[in-house]
Amino acid sequence: MIQVTKVKKIFHQHGVQLSAKALNMIQDDINRQLIKMAKNCKDGNVKRLTPETYHVALGKWSKYLGQ
To answer: Which of 4, 32, 44, 64 has its CA 20 to 30 A from that of 58?
Structure first.
């Protein structure tokens, strides 16, 4: 789902070596975050994620409710 080369490049730019196991953990974490965002959209009745509704995916309901 994520581009491994981009992840490696970011860590390399900051002088950090990245093991294969750490890379797998990063991928798992990102997948969990994406699943949570999709559930937030479903719970917020967002049928299409747009820049205007992105805050719902992040779980910021008060902006979506107009508060």
So the answer is: 4
